[in-house]
Amino acid sequence: MEKNILIVDDSPTARTSISFCLSNAGYTVTEAVDGKDGLEKLDEIKNKGQIVSLIISDINMPRMDGVTFIKEIKKTSFKFVPVLVLTTESQESKKQEGKEAGAAGWLVKPFRPEDLLWIIKKFTRRPHGSKTTT
Would 106 be classed as within a structural domain? Predict the structure, then answer.
């Protein structure tokens, strides 16, 4: 089964490097520029009848920050999709805020591609027959 990952980051450079890493590893990637755009992209994915295996989100973004974005995801049909935070933020208080919002994992930029791919494999592994509904 093809695994679609949504990347939400306001930095074009970050989106490009994450997308390159994931695409080369065989993942399908959808990109969004901030939390609001991320919610719009999730609606588009849902309307196409597709699923999302994982969402990767930055924290510091315009229009809608990552914590608010995660809280909004948890109100949708994507609420069971794991969210990995990939950010420059490393303070324990920020990590706790993300966890309370519903983040499943936290990785600090800059990241090593092998670390990112290991975490993604961990979060996107599902038993046969189970799927995230949209």
Answer: yes
Residue type, 34: D
CA 20 to CA 94: how far, in whole Å? Answer: 27
* Secondary structure (H, E, C), 77-129: CCCCCCEEEEECCCCHHHHHHHHHHCCCEEEECCCCHHHHHHHHHHHHCCCCC
CATH number where 116 lies: 3.40.50.2300
- If one counts the domains in the chain, the total is 1
Neighbours of 108 (CB within 10 A): 13
**pTM recorded for the entire structure:** 0.90
Residue 133 lies in a domain: no
Q: Kind and range of the H or E element at 6?
A: strand 4-8
Helices (H) and strands (E) in the chain, counts: 5, 5
In a domain, 131, yes or no: no
Range of the domain at 57: 4-124
pLDDT in tens, 95-128: 999 999 999 999 999 888 999 999 999 888 754 3
Question: What contacts 57, CB < 8 A, 6 or more positions away?
Answer: 7, 8, 9, 35, 38, 66, 69, 70, 83, 84, 85, 86, 103
